[in-house]
Amino acid sequence: MPHLALRGLTVTTAGGRTLVRDVDLDVAAGERVLLAGPSGAGKSTVLRALAGLLEEDVEAEGDVRLDGRPAVPGEVGLLVQDPLDALVAPTAGRDTAFGPENAGLDRPRTWRQVARAHAAARYTAGRDREVRTLSGGERQRLALAGTLAADPAVLLLDEPTSMLDAATAAVVRSAVLDAAGDARGLLVVDHDVAGWAPHVDRVVVLGAHGGVVHDAPVRQSRPAPAGTGDLWWPGVPAPAPLEVPAGLLTPALAPAPTPGTGDGEVLRGRGLGLVRTRRGLRPRPPATVLAGVDLTLTAGALTPVTGGSGAGKSSLLSLLAGLAAPTSGTLLAAPALAGRRGRRAPHTWTSRELAARVGWVPQFPEHTFVAATVRAEVAVTASVLGRDPGRGEELLEVLGLAAHADANPFRLSGGEQRRLALAGALAAGPALVVADEPTVGQDRSTWAVVAGLLAAAARDGAAVAVGTHDARLLDALRHHGTTPVHLSGGVRAQVAA
Amino acid sequence: MRPRGAAPGAGDVHTSVHSTVDEPVGTAARAVDDGLDDGLDDGLGAGVGAGVDAGVPPTAAQRRSAGRGPLVRHCGPLPLLAVALLCALGAFAVQSWWQAAGALAVQGLCLPLVVGDVRAALRRLLPLALAALSVGWSVVLAGDDPDPLWAALTAALRLLVLVLPGALLLGWLDPTEAGDHLAQRLRVPGRVVVAVVVALGRLDALADSWDQVAAARRVRGLGPGRGPAGRVRWAASTSFGLLVDAVRGAGRVSLAMDARGFAGDGADRRTWALPAPWRRADTVLLLGGTAVAALPALLRVGGAFLTSTT
């Protein structure tokens, strides 16, 4: 029975920064272990070390053994965090075949293994499906199948459900647990201890300053152990949203109440539709993403946009933020927000007009930082528009980023990057704030910052649209909010109130 | 010319056109597979459900053969690459406008065998036409030729002869299939093949990434300015952002690949999930394409012979 053991792992970068200090960890055969820890504690580094795949430019001490011997490549299977990175072939079948090909299996065995892996991961969309047409949940299950196809003795998963809505996450979680079975060891990295606790044998918590601060089974009744304050421990209520000084986020361009448009209306969409056609040499058939969506965003109110994976949330939000043009219907801002020549449709605004009105927090803000330091990143929009840069500085203080003001944004931890993205979007005082899944995969302290900033933006008079599947966030923002826009298959669906 | 190990019908273009590819290939491979019950069964616990095809699927060329389109759809990637390359080399023999015109005329006659969608082909050839015009124009401007117009025409036509076959043929290239053939037929090392195929496959991701970076910059007030200089500056800074993101993404993908057994000697001892059969259509394309590629040289030799005898 394979038993994975890690002893005395310490990893230091070439620059002398310690990523992980003195970590011991065991995963027995058939055992299910959750690895948690605050943002930046080195969870991903521990996974890479266990898989024998540390970067080449780091110094590592310590010892990884599988049954007392070094692991053979492929025995320890690692599934990376973003399924887009994990998938390497254009079709589902060929992607899953990648592991068996590397193991040198012949063709009939390869394809038999592919079929088994698809069944084990509950991937049911078919092996001929093109990977890019899969939904988030299907993609995650296909990525899991790709890891299972190599038939590893131990399965290491980096936040396999953090990008998924609750229902899809539950399906993927049960696929993971079934696939691990009784013989395989399973190690999952996740912030969401509450979600995994009922299904795992042990929870191991890394400390912010190295070492393991907790290694025991979780019981609902007991209080959260010391050192786990930033984790979503079962039974611990969501933290209070961050207190943001009043007036810090007041819009620079306030939409004056105008007769005939409704009081404080900022943006009104009627019959919004979006059909995507792919340009290029090998065009794709057009896909209807949104159809006939009506909504109104009001100053001082927060409008949640909800719906399952692939329901069109992100597409609707990018329309609201003026990043794409609807292919049918009309989307008009309040007359007070009109751009040059009275243009009121957000996608017709120039870059500066857009920046003066809209703050946008994309789903993966770490891909889109525009400046070389944290301070410059926050100041960019205000300085382009000639607005007061003081707000950005104050936001850095409030969000606890002031100490990193001269750091490169890419050097920050995931949670810090998320705060920075929010600060950058809000620093110039937008009248409309659009955020796409701003709390996904965040620990409690960053979650509190996100919830606090969004609530404060609405309180100070901005119209806020938030795409989210985070029930805690919906709950925390409820008394700032209006009726959620619930999408199902690109259409606004009725929700029972 | 039926290759070893290929499924029935794979070697014969004409039968596979009329059969539904999934049926014969799938069942044949399943029959092979059922006789081969190995130790892997224990590994993945869950069995394969009913109705799930666990056999070897058809190759990309077999799928294309079963569909509609011009005749070149039956061909695999190697003759496509070879003919594109040979035609480019052959164009260097062009010395005068009539040789180029003759070669171009024959290439034009072959177009119906290659072009399925005329509008897509025209879109693809537009940059080529612009390039030919600009080459011709620069020859006129250089003007050191006694007869600049004819020299310009020769230069422009030569460029067309050089690039036209490649521009159209390579549109039929499927990167994954090309990788299978390069590795199995030409013994190109697996590490190189997989790296190139995965990189090509991520060009789509790069396009999405460009959209994201461009959108984020626009909404932060860093969109392109009005003038051309501003646009160039904007494109340069956006490309830089994209480059940073692409390098970071490449690191993550290579980690994912290594985690699936690509690290170490897995890459060099790997097998390939689909075969790389050489089919009759491949031979036809290679021979025909070589003849077209040799045309400028033949015309040149023939022309020299005629002028020497008169």
Descriptive account of the structure:
The complex is a heterodimer of chains A (497) and B (310). Chain A contains 15 helices and 18 strands. With 497 residues, chain A is α/β, with parallel strands linked by helices. Chain A folds into two domains: 217 residues, Rossmann fold (3-Layer(aba) Sandwich); 231 residues, Rossmann fold. A six-stranded mixed beta sheet of chain A has the order 5-6-7-3-8-9, sandwiched between helices. A six-stranded mixed beta sheet of chain A has the order 14-15-16-12-17-18, with helices on both faces. Chain A has a three-stranded antiparallel beta sheet with strand order 2-1-4. The model of chain A has no long low-confidence stretch (mean pLDDT 84). Chain B is built from 13 helices and no strands. At the A-B interface, β5, α2, α4, α5 and α6 of A face α2, α6, α10, α11 and α12 of B.
Key phrases:
heterodimer; A: 497 residues; alpha/beta; Rossmann fold; 2 domains; 6-stranded mixed beta sheet; 15 helices; 28% helix; globular; B: 310 residues; mainly alpha; 13 helices; disordered N terminus
Concise summary:
The complex is a heterodimer of chains A (497) and B (310). Chain A has 497 residues and is of the alpha/beta class.
Present the secondary structure layout.
The complex is a heterodimer of chains A (about 500) and B (about 300).
Chain A: E1 4-13, E2 18-27, E3 32-36, H1 43-50, E4 58-66, E5 76-79, H2 83-86, H3 92-96, H4 98-102, H5 107-120, H6 136-149, E6 154-158, H7 166-180, E7 185-189, H8 193-196, E8 202-206, E9 212-216, E10 265-278, E11 284-298, E12 302-306, H9 313-320, E13 328-333, H10 351-357, E14 358-361, H11 374-385, H12 390-398, H13 414-426, E15 432-436, H14 444-459, E16 463-467, H15 471-476, E17 485-488, E18 491-492
Parallel strand pairs in A: 3-7, 3-8, 5-6, 6-7, 12-16, 12-17, 14-15, 15-16
Antiparallel strand pairs in A: 1-2, 1-4, 8-9, 10-11, 10-13, 17-18
Chain B: H1 13-18, H2 22-34, H3 60-66, H4 77-90, H5 97-114, H6 118-142, H7 148-169, H8 175-185, H9 190-201, H10 203-219, H11 228-262, H12 266-269, H13 280-309
Keywords (chain A): ATP-binding, Nucleotide-binding, Transport
Family (chain A): Belongs to the ABC transporter superfamily.
Protein name (chain A): ATP-binding cassette domain-containing protein
